[in-house]
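= Paired protein data =
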Amino acid sequence: MATEQQASEAAIRELIEGWATAVRAGDLDSVLADHSQDIQMFDVPPPNEVRSLEAYRETWPPFFEWLNQGAVFEIVSLDVTAGDDVAFATALLRCGTEE
């Protein structure tokens, strides 16, 4: 029988994997679905930082266009830790083209 912590970690893992599936599908509504209005994201390509769900939304159409040109987006590894009051995840993503 799974512990409450294991169940929480599995649910978080499922949420993140579903997000990655939505990214690959170019499903913007699903990509945004579980994010807070006051999201803050740091990323490699400009803009390197966005603050707000609307700013985050604006980063996706060019990314989806790039993916449609043959780029890959996949989770290589994902570690999730959940406690009673907080949880976090670290992941290694492969995101790019053969070039």
About this structure: The beta strands are 40-42, 49-51, 72-82, 87-96. The chain has a mean pLDDT of 93. The CA atoms of residues 50 and 58 lie 9 Å apart.
